[in-house]
Amino acid sequence: MSFDVQALRAEFPILSDQVHGKPLVYLDTGASSQKPECVIEAMSQYYRHQHANVHRGIHQLSQTATDAYEATRDKVAQWIGANRREEVIFTRGTTESINLIAQTWGRTQVRAGDRLLVSELEHHANLVPWQMLAQSTGAELVKIPLLPDGTLDLNVYEAELARGAKLLAITEVSNALGTILPLADMIPKAKAAGAVVVVDGAQAVPHHRVNLAEMGADFYVFSGHKMYGPTGIGVLWGRFDLLDSLPPWQGGGDMIEHVTFEASTYNTLPYRLEAGTPAIAEGIGLGAALDWLNSIDFDAAVAHEHEVFDYARQQLKQIPGLRLIGEADEAAGAISFAIEGMAASDLGTLLDHQGIAVRTGHHCAMPALQAMGVNGTTRASFGLYNSRDDVDALIRGLNVARDILA
Ligand code: PMP
Q1: Is the whole-model pTM more than 0.85?
Q2: All domains of the chain, ordered by start, with CATH?
């Protein structure tokens, strides 16, 4: 394979660290990816030499900071295939982006009796805001159920669409099971039924190229920290006309045009939806992450990651008593499993003592795990920097854990 994973790993300082005296084997990228040196350096440079507030100052530093921060908006627009930079709204992350949609579009457009279609696979971030909206408006929350293999029941989906849908809220890639959803098939049907489509791209953007112009969604959301950027910054993308029709969300600085004591007029997009001082260093860090993604051979890196993912699935299946939770053919990023007679938390702890970082528990997707008949799983999740060596370490670690727990 031409892709040089060792060279890529060398760009991530933390991957040379030790945990509990053992070399770190990081298999928790689904929760948050590690950061390359250039991202860390860009944020440090900003605080050392460029820091000032953005959008307000006449002075040089403020201008420099504004330019660096706003450049990220263009980089995001380019990376996801947005038509206009004004369609990129910065938020704190996926969770805040979805809450913004629910509280602006939802509060003004959703009425009692409207049907909100949400898949059973969603992260709580793409379920709870819709539950809250349904409770406050009298709308109906409608489940698109999971099948035992971790894919969605598309027959039920079509039947529910036929009964009418105001909203389809759907993930592109499941953080809990790794399932990739067939959005190219699902979205046109939702649009034909008149639904507004919100896609949670948190686990998709780090694992493959996204083209929003082709996808046909109305809103698309993701977090910087899962795509090699910092925490505290994320994106809400929306179709311009739809975003432009939204009422303001939070009130304060930056989102206004003119203010009297009694009333205000509001700024244009994107600022109308971005009240207050933003996460400037984090925005600059996200820009550096996108520069980094543009600088590597992303397609080769993704092919490498998928190869490691497939290898991991095969190797895990060899472990006696291990059951994969979710076995969709189309999957990426995360592999969930359970081992007969062993609690996920015990497995996670024993792996941690060997320097192997995995996630255990419900992965913020309790309904999905309930549908799969488990309370929790052990989840190994992958990034561009993982290699077969990490998988081999995981398998060795699981065998050690089995010997201890047996
Ligand atoms: N959706 C999915 C699919 C996720 O994986 C996550 C993070 N685990 C979220 C939403 C929430 O992202 P954040 O915590 O960055 O807001």
Answers
A1: yes
A2: 5-27+297-405 (3.90.1150.10), 41-294 (3.40.640.10)
